[in-house]
Amino acid sequence: MSEAYNGGGVYVFHRTGGNDWGQGVLLVSPGPESDANFGHTVSLSGDYLIVGDTTNPSSGIKTGAAYIFHRIGLNDWDQGTPLMPPGLEDRDEFGHVVAIDGEFAVVGAPGTDEGGIEDNGVVYAFHRTGTTSWDNGQKIVNPADKELSRFGFDVSISNDTVAIMAESDGAIHAFRRNGANSWGDGEPIGLTENVVGGCLSMVGEFVVTTGHDPDRRHFRGPTALLFERSADTWNRVLQLTDHAVFPSENFGHSLDISATHLAVGVTTNYLPGEVYVY
User: Fold this and answer.
1) Cβ pair 65, 84 in contact under 8 A
2) pLDDT digits (tens, 9 = 90+) for 194-227
3) How far is CA 179 from the centre of its chain?
4) Among the four residues 12, 106, 122, 148, which has the most C-beta atoms within 10 Å?
């Protein structure tokens, strides 16, 4: 692989024991371009790593791209396989967010004018059909079909379910796989009237999202909401609030959830950031 000026890159680190990690291996785009945004978002599952590039000048103006790398040694990776569904256009922002779990990968394209609706957004789901081969992708469309919704702003996948957020109002829907790469109608994940989602993460039957005051669009939190699925209904089971933070701080700027733990990041304008682990 060769590097390009301002092309971006991803470092992969291998744990060598306890909490010791190697120096890391640099991955770059299979066809790097100057001023690309390779590494904007990443997700790892087993021996597969997916990387998003929202710029990718070779494909158009903010058309975007995504690549999947397969581990072939201790920390050796192949050249990467591009995911390029047909019909991408300028400013679709394909690769704005990516997620992978097992044989399925999902890629958000929130700038897509799906159905002729400006910035309606769409998400593509890809199924691995061989060691390094993937299908052409299946669209998961916005149930709301709303202008400037930017559906696909954030995504998370766990087992046979994909959770997808729209940026404009933070609405989240969960889509359950009902075929090889077909997905059912979205199940809404309800939010309170004064909190809309900022980002999300999913594991098993749980989805966590961070909220922000809709009247202060640049500030998230200070709230993290945990939802649990029961049949086809999602119920809020926990709300986390850091009463110590100032309103200007972003409790929940980023987060992640596993089977046993939840991590919530906090950024500030004046003090070092923090991470809360529950």
Assistant:
1) yes
2) 445 578 999 999 999 886 555 544 444 467 889 9
3) 22
4) 106
Q: CA dihedral defined by 57, 59, 61, 62, rounded to 10 degrees? A: -90
- Count the neighbouring beta carbons within 10 Å of the beta carbon of residue 12: 17
Neighbours of 197 (CB within 10 A): 26
Compute, in degrees rounded to 10, the torsion defined by CA atoms 46, 141, 30, 127.
40
Mean pLDDT of the chain: 86
Go through 71-96 and write b for each residue having 16 or more CB atoms within 10 A of its CB, e for each that does not. Answer: beeeeebeebbebbbeebeebbbbbb
Give residues with Cβ within 8 angstroms of 242, minimum separation 6. Answer: 221, 222, 251, 266, 276
Read out DSSP for 139-191? EEE-SS--TT--EEEEEEEETTEEEEEETTT--EEEEEB-SSS-B-PPEEE--
CA distance 199 to 263: 13
Q: Is 46 left (phi over 0), alpha (psi -120 to 50) or beta?
A: left
Q: How many Å apart are CA 273 and CA 259, to the nearest integer?
A: 25
Q: Quick one: which of 197, 42, 184 has its CA closest to 125?
A: 184
DSSP assignment of 65-131 equals: EEEEEEB-SSS-B-S-EEE--TT--TT--BTSEEEEETTEEEEEETT--GGG-TT-BEEEEEEB-SS
Above 80 in pLDDT, residue 244? no
The sheet carrying 122-127 orders its strands as 97-101, 104-109, 122-127, 138-141
Cα separation, 122 vs 183, whole angstroms: 13
